[in-house]
Write a structure and sequence with these properties.
Elements: H1 16-35, E1 45-49, E2 54-58, E3 72-76, H2 89-98, E4 104-108, H3 111-119, E5 125-128, E6 147-152, H4 158-169, E7 177-178, E8 181-184, E9 188-193, H5 196-220
Parallel strand pairs: 6-7, 6-8
Antiparallel strand pairs: 1-2, 1-4, 2-3, 4-9, 5-6, 8-9
The protein binds 5-S-methyl-1-O-phosphono-5-thio-D-ribulose and zinc ion.
Function: Catalyzes the dehydration of methylthioribulose-1-phosphate (MTRu-1-P) into 2,3-diketo-5-methylthiopentyl-1-phosphate (DK-MTP-1-P).
Catalytic activity: L-ribulose 5-phosphate = D-xylulose 5-phosphate; 5-(methylsulfanyl)-D-ribulose 1-phosphate = 5-methylsulfanyl-2,3-dioxopentyl phosphate + H2O
Protein name: Methylthioribulose-1-phosphate dehydratase
């Protein structure tokens, strides 16, 4: 081996305007979720893909409703979490690695998502059917479709959790539409889309659907 063969290739350099666009989308998504009360007490994390190799991702422990561009880090998709990155970075990277079509991932801690995940953990999923708003999810055309949102037990080992999620994502369920999101029991919701705008729409639709499902349970009780 000569000296040159041990030189590592330089990391990819993302286009500056693509970085700025992704960072601005992360900041906007955090602020928007905070206004809805979905990211209390510094909870939640947000990422937007910059290109095939990198994403813009929130820094750990900051108020997601008061994000500035300095709170958004550049994270390679195929590398360990960078310093100060979200504690839940492995959950973002697992999805970006497995699914190149995903362009943004938003995570919230709304009461409705946390409660439904805890209440239905034993069933392994929440099935959504009969709601007009479910048509806001990509590939859902009718209120008669059944949309499945998987539920996973919460785990502070987010790398192990990411592996369990990837295994289940690789096993589609016949007869239902897989939601662009999943629930962590007693924790919250992860939702994604091909773009930041689509992830925002999916997040809002799922959050409101969960609130409606909870309200209907109370109404019927
Ligand atoms: C403040 S409780 C919520 C955290 O434990 C975590 O679940 C979360 O969503 C935010 O973690 P972060 O490391 O700021 O991305
Ligand atoms: Zn969380």
């Amino acid at each position: 081996m000569n000296a040159l063969s041990s030189v590592q290739p330089a990391p990819p350099v993302s286009d500056a305007s693509a970085v700025a666009t992704a960072v601005a989308a992360v900041v906007a998504a955090g602020r928007s979720a905070a206004l809805r009360g979905w990211v209390p007490a510094t909870s939640g994390n947000f990422s937007v893909r910059i290109d095939a190799e990198t994403v813009a991702l929130t820094r750990s422990g900051v108020d997601k409703g008061r994000l500035t561009p300095d709170d958004v880090l550049i994270q390679p998709v195929d590398a360990p979490p960078v310093a100060r990155a979200s504690a839940e970075t492995p959950l973002h990277l697992g999805l970006y690695r497995a699914r190149p079509e995903i362009g943004a991932i938003f995570h919230t801690h709304s009461p409705a998502a946390s409660v439904i995940g805890a209440g239905l953990l034993a069933e392994g999923a929440v099935r959504i059917s009969g709601w007009e708003l479910q048509k806001a999810l990509a590939s859902v055309r009718t209120h008669e479709a059944t949309v499945e949102v998987p539920i996973f037990a919460n785990d502070q080992d987010t790398a192990a959790l990411a592996e369990r999620i990837a295994e289940r994502q690789a096993q589609p369920v016949a007869g239902v539409v897989a939601a662009p999101g999943y629930l962590l029991a007693g924790h919250g919701l992860y939702a994604w889309g091909a773009t930041a705008a689509e992830a925002e729409r999916h997040l809002e639709a799922l959050e409101v659907l969960f609130a409606q499902i909870l309200a209907l349970k109370q109404f019927a009780a």
